[in-house]
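User: For a reading group we're discussing how well predicted structures match intuition. Take Transcriptional regulator WhiB. Before you show the prediction, I'll give you the sequence so everyone sees exactly what went in.
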Amino acid sequence: MPMNTTTEPALAWQEAALCAQAGPEFFFPAPGSSTREAKRLCGACEGRQACLEYALANDERFGVWGGLSEKERLKLRRESG
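Assistant: Thanks. Here is the predicted 3D structure of Transcriptional regulator WhiB, as structure tokens, for the group to look at:
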């Protein structure tokens, strides 16, 4: 979930991202809480793929990024690495 409002071309997706309109607790839920709503919002976001690529490239270990949880991103890294 991006919080930076930079205009750098590689991060331009952050400004229009749907998560920018929701609070961080939505994408960083308490342990054991559901990530379903965050993933649903990600699924409707045009920046989902760029967000996921950012999270993977920057080794984001917490929260929902690009529609995937921490465990799902770790699994994706293992499968592609």
